[in-house]
Write a structure and sequence with these properties.
This protein is mostly helical.
Length: 449
């Protein structure tokens, strides 16, 4: 009996070791892919802040080592929302933000930024550690559905009223005309909050419940809701969420024990996919392929890393906001610029654009320089720890699935904007209150994850 137990424990240890090795190898290949993308593929968009500077090999190796340390120490089983978010931030924010400023070579002290990002990521992980308890928030399922649908219908009607004359399903390759009309229609209204809550919270929640609990009418309603929101501002990320949420569910969270390796392979495939497609298509000959490549390379990882370097360069020589970029604090203490941070950076780059960036840049570098990067890492970690306490264990899988659109937006926005305007806080509340009937629960969602 003892020999069997020892043998069983040994097999578990071997399995865990194999998963860890797989995560590290996939992360290393991901780092190499990002390097290739910047050096070769992003040359097409040099004017958007992708210069290839005179970088040093030792600096590149230093970043590689910093990138591999989290891959060797973060949890490999996705048992809590915070663990999934930590891995998502690692691949889509931390690694590109760590690597691309070094390749830009704007400043001689860029390795200080690399070190601050590493410390911020480490604090994010430490502060999001296992929660000390659970806050049990309960409401009857009937009342939850009533309140949810009442709020949902009210927001949809308000959005429809504002955009009633400009709704259009714009061609995904030409969205700027639709966005210009939407900006005119939305001027002077609060519709941005409504579309943010619908696209970042309510619709993803419906899609997630439809998938995880096989409530397909809610799935159809959520997909239709996202298409409706796309018809307003023509945001590609909203349309992308319709495919990304189910993809993340089936590839990562459908099994009994979701693993970080699945996330790593998903991210690696996302970066390598367009390269492989390039063997059959040319960006010069296919507008659709060029837009796909721009979405994956330029928007999803390119701007995340490049704008981190631009923000570092700008705020190393300009006044930081001391968190006055947050609306409430700005009214109390005064904001040092006449435009929003993204517009200030866009002007600094010589471009007419709102250069929104990830929370390490916006809530870190812009707020308090390198120290701000470390501080915001701790703040995000503490928030995640609270969310772990609020979301019941039975809904962790659902929470991770529906959080994907908010996390994608987090790569290009402030943490506080994502929480409030983007609807992530409301999304957490919806999942915390959701109590599915036992008969609707998918068999694979039971048990420990």
């Amino acid at each position: 009996m003892i020999d069997r137990q020892v043998s069983s424990i040994s097999l578990v240890d071997i399995t865990i070791s194999k998963i860890r090795v797989g995560v590290v190898l996939a992360s290393a290949l991901y780092f190499v892919c990002l390097y290739y993308i910047y050096v070769f593929e992003l040359r097409r968009w040099d004017y958007l802040g992708f210069p290839l500077g005179d970088y040093s090999v030792p600096a590149l190796l230093y970043c590689f080592v910093l990138a591999m340390i989290p891959a060797m120490m973060f949890p490999i089983f996705l048992r809590r929302l915070s663990v999934f978010v930590v891995w998502f931030v690692y691949y889509f924010i931390f690694v590109p933000a760590l690597l691309y400023p070094v390749l830009q070579a704007y400043r001689d002290d860029t390795l200080l930024l690399s070190t601050a990002l590493f410390l911020g990521m480490l604090l994010l992980f430490i502060c999001s550690g296992a929660s000390s308890g659970h806050l049990d928030i309960r409401v009857s399922r009937r009342w939850f559905l009533r309140l949810f649908m009442a709020a949902y219908i009210a927001l949809v009607l308000y959005v429809f009223y504002v955009f009633r004359d400009s709704l259009s399903l714009a061609d995904i390759t030409d969205v700027y005309g639709q966005r210009a009309q939407a900006d005119i229609a939305a001027d002077g209204t609060y519709v941005g909050y409504a579309t943010g809550v619908l696209s970042g919270a309510f619709n993803p929640f419906l899609i997630g419940v439809g998938l995880v609990h096989r409530r397909y009418r809610l799935l159809v309603l959520g997909v239709g809701g996202q298409i409706f929101i796309y018809a307003t501002f023509a945001l590609k990320s909203v349309l992308l969420s319709i495919g990304v949420i189910p993809l993340m569910y089936f590839l990562v969270f459908r099994g009994e024990r979701p693993r970080a390796l699945n996330v790593a392979l998903f991210c690696l495939a996302m970066m390598a996919g367009p390269v492989l497609l390039g063997l059959f298509y040319s960006a010069d000959d296919s507008v659709l392929y060029e837009n796909f490549m721009a979405l994956v390379y330029m928007r999803i990882v390119g701007m995340v890393g490049a704008l981190t370097g631009v923000y570092y360069d700008f705020f190393a020589q300009s006044a930081v906001t001391l968190y006055s970029h947050i609306n409430v604090l700005g009214r109390l203490f005064g904001y040092p610029y006449s435009m929003q941070i993204g517009q200030v950076i866009g002007e600094f780059m010589g471009l007419d654009m709102n250069a929104n960036a990830n929370f390490f840049a916006t809530d870190g570098l812009a707020a308090a320089g390198l120290l701000g990067v470390v501080i915001i890492g701790a703040v995000v970690g503490i928030c995640l720890r609270f969310f772990d306490m609020v979301v019941p264990a039975r809904n962790v899988r659902l929470m991770c699935v529906v959080a994907v659109p908010s996390l994608v937006n987090l790569a290009n926005s402030s943490w506080f904007t994502t929480l409030l305007t983007g609807g992530f806080l409301i999304l957490v509340l919806c999942v915390a209150l959701w109590n599915s009937e036992a008969s609707c629960v998918h068999p694979s969602t039971t048990g420990a994850i």
